[in-house]
């Protein structure tokens, strides 16, 4: 049993500042799935190809991933609150600019700026919630992942409803909600009296040399490829089956995101209370691969794709929570450094998947992206299993003095 992962009954009894950050997290994660239902509409109205339209994900995720390596350096110098507010301000500005754009190239560029704001906000928000929430690390991470799940659920729904009016609507809606989040954090999140110790610019990169964090980051790289194959490519797989309007796609991916939220909050803690975190990963990652195989085999069935996507959301919710908990427990690094290193690698995996999926579909077959996603899920499984001896701390075990010294030496190299 992994006692450290058992959720506390105080998860809903949090300071107002934590709820303010959590609300902003929901809106930030809405930005990931927001464009999902309007991808076909943008492609049609702006005369863009599927590969070009998928770059709305890639530009956003590449900049998010790269920038996340440097967020801990910035937040340790100007403080978490200022970093969060700068991130939110950038999201408001670039979401507004994207909504005012008249060509797909401009939207791709503004989504990149949006990604910079997202990186500053998301990485710092995770460390802020973990540091300020009541109920311990596990409860804080469950709250964070619940925000992620709700954002992934509401994002496509809002994108679908607003996108049925105009593809510009979701961008303006996000700018408005993020402005509300900005005001909430200004008023409710207090600036700590103690200035944090500045971290070195290279700290997240050196952190990846620690075996536990490096292994989990590598697994997350391939896992996120599977994640974004499902999220970004499935709308295009549904178009030939007559499901191309924004509202329909919005409701489908609302169900997917709601599944992510449900298992993040209830199923993941249930499993990690009864078995080590790494064993949960060994069990659920292969199930994700099987679900992607089902998507590949059922690519000509609308019902089959919808059911498989919802089932995939259930599995992704478990994996998101367990991977994040594992990262936060795998080392004794500062939370912000561990979050920056892990999140940077993870989002780069997500950046690769959307254009690669569109290319595979165009050159081989519509089912090929799902087959590729199944393979990357199995690679993630293999990485966790092969590196299991370095993940004992993630399971709640205490490292021996020699192992800890070796890890520190590697991290400082």
TrEMBL record:
Domain Major facilitator superfamily (MFS) profile positions: 17-392
Organism: Glaciibacter psychrotolerans
PROSITE patterns with a match to the protein in the record: MFS (PS50850)
Molecular function in Gene Ontology: transmembrane transporter activity
Residue intervals passing through the bilayer: 17-35, 55-76, 83-100, 112-134, 141-165, 171-191, 212-234, 246-268, 280-299, 305-323, 344-364, 370-387
Cell compartments where the protein resides: Cell membrane
Superkingdom in the source lineage: Bacteria
The keyword Transmembrane helix is assigned to this record: yes
Keyword entries, A-Z: Membrane, Transmembrane, Transmembrane helix
Protein name as annotated: Putative MFS family arabinose efflux permease
Membrane topology listed for this record: Multi-pass membrane protein
InterPro entries: MFS (IPR011701), MFS_dom (IPR020846), MFS_trans_sf (IPR036259), Tet-R_TetA/multi-R_MdtG-like (IPR001958), YfmO-like (IPR053200)
Gene Ontology cellular component terms for the protein in this record: plasma membrane
Keyword Membrane part of the UniProt annotation: yes
Pfam families: MFS_1
